[in-house]
Amino acid sequence: MKKKTKSIIWSIMALIVAAAVLAIYLKGKAAGAPRLSYETVTVTRSDISSTVTATGTIEPVTEVEVGTQVSGIIDRIYVDYNSIVREGQIIAEMDKVTLESELASARAAYDGSKAEYEYQTKNYERNRKLYERNLISDTDYEQSVYNYEMARSSFHGSEASLAKAERNLSYATIASPIDGVVIDRAVEEGQTVAAGFETPTLFTIAADLTQMQVVADVDEADIGGVADGQRVSFTVDAYPDDIFEGKVT
Question: I want to staple 148 with a disulfide (CB 3.0 to 4.6 A). Which of 6, 37, 120, 227 is the partner?
């Protein structure tokens, strides 16, 4: 009887040990196994953005370079950087002494050629009537015609020279061609400028500084992704924390 009892006790202890071992094994296996979780969303259509980076300079949309068409000395300057100007406003004047002398000389030549032209015109009309009546020789008539043509040519030449001298004098007064703001001044009072093959730039005027554009150089590998009307955001060195908006044109 005692042997049977001991056998039952050992069997129970063996079952307990086996159960403990199995529990430890299952617990360790459960702790090492990855847990799977799923998330579901509704399928929607959206945009994929691609960014192209470029650098450039900020310039006014409308910018006019003001120069001079005559050579001379800058006598007066009436505007400076950031000056607001109106169309037709005088912004500088050149020394006019030489130009006024040229105008006076051209006007004197014009007056003399005009008087000669009027005289030769009357002489020609008088000789023409006499020639039609056979009262003067062919030589006298031809001479009067020649004098008349030469006087007329000289008169028209002096007329053109006078107009040019008047125009050059008017160029000595430099006015703003548009309403805007002076963003560059390239000359000083007393400076000599020479208008040869290229008109020298005296001032640069921006029409509206609220309308600006970025002239950017885009890399060859990225230019294919740039199209008219695309949205642009950019920053400037002066305000690195501010982001400005625009569009490609």
Answer: 120
Confidence of residue 211 (pLDDT cuts 50, 70, 90): confident
pTM check: above 0.90: no
**Average of pLDDT values for 189-193?**
91
Nearest C-alpha neighbor of 166 from the set 121, 124, 107, 211: 107
Do 93 and 75 contact (CB within 8 A), yes or no? yes
Q: Take residue 12 and report the two structure tokens written for it.
A: 């129970």
Handedness of CA 160, 163, 87, 206 (dihedral sign): positive
The CB density around residue 130, as the number of other CB atoms within 10 Å, is: 15
Residue 91's CB: how many other CB atoms inside 10 A? Answer: 22
Q: Which residues contact 139 (CB under 8 A, 6 or more apart)?
A: none
